[in-house]
């Protein structure tokens, strides 16, 4: 077992590569400087919210509005386009929002209750394969009362519905510019967010400028932002060091993070914050050997998470022992409670108890271009651990993301790796997407107790702390089934030039960057 006690632990949530020197610093006035240039590896797949359930949300948060969102420091959704929102009944089945007055889209059209209803309805009507219609599973219908009031009627209790409304998937679009039954193809945007999309080059960059028509919670610290899209971390970091970009967000490789931590200069800073994205293994029970619960449990007994976190990812991720990450209400260490430290002898007994004495052949699949350059190293480490036990013979196979998705959605992989960045920061979103006959993994996972009892009961609780018991029981079922094995929990890293402030405030609880919090320092 890898001894993580030999690894120095972090002593601060925010680490600066060097001490600031010189005179006092104050915020620059919004609009006084040139655009702040942000680099990321998370390029949009579309500019239409009805077609995206992916990294496009990064851009959407800055150019569209949602009824609710997460202002800096908020841990629950707060009004943005809405003036107020609340459930009107004790059963969490009718949700009412009153809009702010005077809301306009960038072209001057009015943003009213009709636009909100239109935006939500078209998501379900279009039902794009890559779209977010699945988030609206509890919604029955949307009703408008006048120009400023919207009622959402749910077909079952769902205390997570406000969290869904706060996702960029529920961005409000102009009915005059977005077709009701198909996705918009133009590379332009008619939104009402903090910025307008001044120009856009697919896969290259997006230029944002302050939207003077915006009315919402965002207190913009700059007038313009340019987002540049990179294919890999090394190129992005090189651009940061050369001054071609001011900030990096999402996509930093572990080796680059470690290099930045040791890069002693007053020119750069590295901000390290907690994250709730996770990485895990999925077992397809239709595959030979994998259908045997003892085989899955033996793998879970051998996997050495600290070795993966510290040897492969160099301490830039944390070992995870539950599908619900640390920091969320309802998190447990259920896998550690069940299996403890990695043990070959315990795994051998698990197999022997069901009569398996031979080496079990398994094929592990991973994607080559989705979760970072360390993914291949991670799976080589998993293979090393399992092969060394003498209980397994692991074959590794990989594909690029586009073809990889098609493979796992059609059940072709016995065991495969996945990552998950949440739609919203709630334990529900780390359980519900993975169970049921039509889950996000393409491998049906029937768990009637979770889907028919525990999740419905938890969604009846507006106080999420009151749902902890349901989440704990659901996580124990996941452990007992061993269909999903959590591996690690990510952290958030922002690298920036020393002249940039606001990085700590730029991340909302859903780990989406709010670029309006960034600004250039000026001395006095």
Automatic annotation (TrEMBL):
Membrane-crossing residue ranges in chain numbering: none
Localisation: Cell envelope
UniProt signal peptide: 1-32
Keyword Signal tagged: yes
Cross-referenced Gene3D superfamilies: Dipeptide-binding Protein, Domain 3 (3.10.105.10), Periplasmic binding protein-like II (3.40.190.10)
Solute-binding protein family domain ranges (all copies): 76-439
Family that this chain belongs to: Belongs to the bacterial solute-binding protein 5 family.
Name the UniProt record assigns to this protein: ABC transporter substrate-binding protein
């Amino acid at each position: 077992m890898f001894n993580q006690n030999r690894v120095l632990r972090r002593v601060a949530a925010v680490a600066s590569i060097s001490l600031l020197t010189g005179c006092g610093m104050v915020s620059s006035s919004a609009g006084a400087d040139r655009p702040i240039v942000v680099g990321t590896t998370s390029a949009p797949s579309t500019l239409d919210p009805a077609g995206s359930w992916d990294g496009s949300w990064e851009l959407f948060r800055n150019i569209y509005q949602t009824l609710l969102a997460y202002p800096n420091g908020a841990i629950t959704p707060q009004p943005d386009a809405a003036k107020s929102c609340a459930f009107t009944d004790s059963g969490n089945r009718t949700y009412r929002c009153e809009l702010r007055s005077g809301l306009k889209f960038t072209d001057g059209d009015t943003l009213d209750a009709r636009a909100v209803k239109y935006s939500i309805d078209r998501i379900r009507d279009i039902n794009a394969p890559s779209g977010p219609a699945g988030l609206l599973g509890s919604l029955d219908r949307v009703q408008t009362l006048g120009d400023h009031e919207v009622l959402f009627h749910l077909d079952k209790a769902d205390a997570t519905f406000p969290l869904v409304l706060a996702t960029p998937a529920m961005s409000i679009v102009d009915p005059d510019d977005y077709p009701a039954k198909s996705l918009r193809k133009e590379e332009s945007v008619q939104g009402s967010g903090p910025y307008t999309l001044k120009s856009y080059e697919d896969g290259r960059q997006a230029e944002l400028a302050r939207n003077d028509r915006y009315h919402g919670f965002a207190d913009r610290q700059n007038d313009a932002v340019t987002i540049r899209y990179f294919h890999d971390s090394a190129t992005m970091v090189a651009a940061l060091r050369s001054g071609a970009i001011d900030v990096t967000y999402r996509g930093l490789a572990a080796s680059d993070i470690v290099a930045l931590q040791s890069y002693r200069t007053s020119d750069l800073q590295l901000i390290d914050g907690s994250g709730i994205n996770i990485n895990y293994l999925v077992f397809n029970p239709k595959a030979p050997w994998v259908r045997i619960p003892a085989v899955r449990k033996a793998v879970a007994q051998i996997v050495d998470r600290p070795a993966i976190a510290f040897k492969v990812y160099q301490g830039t991720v944390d070992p995870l022992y539950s599908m619900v990450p640390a920091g969320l209400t309802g998190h447990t260490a259920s896998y550690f409670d069940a299996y403890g430290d990695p043990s070959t002898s315990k795994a051998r007994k698990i197999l022997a108890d069901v009569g398996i004495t031979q080496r079990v052949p398994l094929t592990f699949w991973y994607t080559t271009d989705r979760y970072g350059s360390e993914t291949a190293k991670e799976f080589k480490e998993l293979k090393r651990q399992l092969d060394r036990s003498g209980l397994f013979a692991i074959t590794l196979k990989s594909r690029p993301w586009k073809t990889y998705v098609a493979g796992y959605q059609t059940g072709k992989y016995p065991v495969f790796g996945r990552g998950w960045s949440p739609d919203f920061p709630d334990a529900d979103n780390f359980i519900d997407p993975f169970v049921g006959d039509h889950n996000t993994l393409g491998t049906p996972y029937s768990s009637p107790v979770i889907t028919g009892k525990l999740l419905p009961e938890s969604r009846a609780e507006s106080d999420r702390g009151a749902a902890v018991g349901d989440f704990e029981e659901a996580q124990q079922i996941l452990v007992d089934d061993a269909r999903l094995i959590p591996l690690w929990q990510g952290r958030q890293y922002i690298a920036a030039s020393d002249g940039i402030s606001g990085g700590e405030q730029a991340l909302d609880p859903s780990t989406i960057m709010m670029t309006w919090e960034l600004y250039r320092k000026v001395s006095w």
